Structure to design on (187 residues):
């Protein structure tokens, strides 16, 4: 009986399929919910979510933040996604989303080593507030500048510099996602 219950335990969400059944929506595993000062991350070795850092008072994640399972970005982590939706999700929740764009950027650590670290931007499939958003440009320049500022400030907390390279639409976001899927297959 013990073996049967062990098989029914939770699985590693980083190994889920990255795309929905329609091959258009992507699956996003939420690590950090909107409004949280705590940054959580999935630890694939222990297969649990762990607290990575606590943001200072007055700073919180502006939207849900997670990753696309079965992908690998240039920073060697799964592809990052910022999800726009009506209400915050919870750590470990899997969402079905559609891509609207990508914030392209690079991390520069103290040794001046540059690492590409893009953030896909997606809209949760069944939300209401962002239902009409199809392209990151639909969010408006001020909105996008706030997202960029968050990532720049977030990285500065770890003595890293984050440089915005550009902001691109859903086609480029899908290309980055496909590159992340290919990196896992070629691993």
């Amino acid at each position: 009986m013990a073996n049967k219950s062990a098989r029914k335990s939770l699985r590693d969400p980083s190994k889920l399929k990255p795309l929905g059944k329609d091959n258009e929506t992507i699956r996003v595993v939420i690590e950090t919910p909107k409004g949280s000062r705590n940054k959580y991350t999935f630890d694939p070795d222990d297969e649990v979510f762990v607290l990575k850092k606590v943001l200072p008072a007055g700073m919180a994640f502006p939207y849900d933040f997670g990753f696309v399972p079965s992908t690998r970005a240039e920073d060697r982590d799964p592809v990052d996604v910022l999800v726009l939706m009506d209400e915050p999700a919870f750590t470990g929740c899997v969402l079905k989303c559609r891509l609207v764009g990508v914030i392209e950027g690079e991390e520069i650590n103290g040794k001046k080593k540059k690492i590409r670290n893009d953030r896909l931007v997606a809209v949760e499939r069944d939300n209401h507030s962002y239902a009409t958003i199809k392209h990151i440009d639909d969010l408006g320049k001020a909105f996008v500048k706030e997202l960029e500022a968050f990532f720049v400030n977030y990285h500065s907390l770890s003595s890293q510099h984050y440089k915005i390279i550009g902001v691109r639409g859903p086609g480029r976001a899908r290309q980055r996602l496909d590159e992340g899927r290919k990196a896992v297959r070629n691993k």
